[in-house]
Design goal:
382 residues; alpha/beta; FAD/NAD(P)-binding domain; 2 domains; five-stranded parallel beta sheet; 9 helices
Length: 382
């Protein structure tokens, strides 16, 4: 079916997964456990594309370690038996290393990935699934899993004048920033990572942030507070004397100056002048790639996607979301070790509705280690 469709024939399949990052590959591995299921993965570029676009110096903030023999899967693994740490020989993988790990897993399992196949339009069909129009033609599926991630969808317009800035996601290599000093806007992971890497290269950095994200007052959640890896590197950067952190800086505008350079305005009236292009560490669009089919989701007041308990669209039956945009009440699944808990949930639901044997998905609590184990703790909001 896959080869015939790739060569231009309109075909039907049970499931289409859009996106071949950790979410898409992970869901595919769960579907592989359903006997007789037909599915395909459509990827606009190549497996792990978002990670391949990371700056050269960027590393995964969650550590990889081969603890599998003791029942604790590598935090960044997309299959229970694999380990990015063993694959790459690294604890904090680069984007290229992690993308290569994903490609290795896809090849090893013979996953039906169609690369260079951008989806242009999705049309729901009442009670019959979806028709997807893509660069390779049209494909009809009973179920659709949207796993497009967020890195390729940066928030480029957080305030007027942002077009004069360089977003973190537009940086290929920090070595190309050769001026002695820079201003970074944003104090969460990408902003701090930008500052840390620039300082490591000998630059001085002014970091403008609304609040301190590394000293949480409540229970620690890495989805809301700076990760220990980033915090440790930031403290080392502070010790150099070349990192100036300014709090309460709610940036509302960046403008060019007649004399040259840029002026950065905060809501409280403060402003800063810089000869260099400001760097945006302001994050990514809410919903990430799910914005491509925005009309098929119900959006909450806070700008997130409302889902059923099975990660299905509340508006369009048969449409599932996988990846860092998944949220359920206070639970934010924006790390790989978090959203991988949802792979079998999606596969289980699809398998049951197709009348397939889902027994292979019944691995019991804690298949990925303590996370996801209901007996692990009481009232856990992981």
């Amino acid at each position: 079916m896959l080869k015939a469709w790739v060569h231009g024939m309109i075909k039907k399949t049970d499931v289409v997964i859009v996106g071949a990052g950790p979410a898409g590959i992970g869901v595919a591995l769960a579907l592989e456990k359903l006997p007789g299921i037909k599915y395909v993965i459509l990827e606009s570029h190549q497996v792990g594309e978002s990670f391949r676009r990371w700056p050269t110096q960027t590393r995964l903030i969650t550590p990889s370690f081969h603890s599998n023999p003791f029942g604790l899967a590598d935090l960044n693994a997309v299959s229970e038996s694999s380990s990015p740490a063993i694959f790459a020989g690294a604890e904090h993988l680069s984007g290229q290393q992690y993308a290569n790990y994903l490609a290795f897993i896809a090849h090893q399992h013979g996953l039906p990935v169609v690369s260079a196949c951008r989806v242009h339009q999705v049309t729901p069909i009442n009670h019959e699934g979806f028709v997807l129009d893509s660069e390779r033609g049209s494909l009809q599926a009973r179920f659709l899993v949207w796993a497009t991630g967020e890195y390729q969808f940066p928030e480029l317009s957080p305030f007027p004048g942002a077009q004069w800035c360089t977003h973190y996601a537009q940086v290929q290599n920090w070595q190309r920033f050769e001026a002695p000093d820079y201003t970074v806007i944003g104090g969460y992971e990408s902003g701090v990572d930008a500052a840390v890497n620039l300082i490591k290269l000998g630059r001085s950095v002014r970091l403008l942030t609304r609040k301190c994200t590394w000293d949480p007052l409540g229970p620690y959640d890495p989805s809301l507070s700076l990760s220990p890896y980033s915090r440790e590197r930031m403290y080392a950067a502070v010790d150099t004397g070349r990192l100036d952190i300014l709090f309460g800086a709610d940036i509302v505008q960046v403008e060019t100056r007649k004399a040259g350079g840029y002026r950065i305005h905060a809501a409280d009236g403060r402003y800063w002048d810089d000869a260099q292009v400001p760097i945006l560490g302001t994050g990514f669009r809410k919903g990430g790639g799910a914005q491509q089919i925005a009309e098929l989701w119900q959006w909450t007041v806070s700008g997130h996607i409302a889902l059923t308990e099975n990660d299905e669209s509340t508006l369009v039956p048969g449409l599932f979301l996988a990846g860092p945009q998944v949220r359920h009440d206070d639970r934010i699944y924006c790390f790989i070790y978090k959203f991988r808990q949802r792979f079998s949930v999606i596969a289980q639901n699809i398998g049951q509705r197709l009348g397939l044997d889902t027994g292979a998905l019944q691995t019991g609590s804690g298949a990925w280690g303590p996370f996801g184990n209901e007996d692990c703790c009481e009232g856990c909001q992981c």
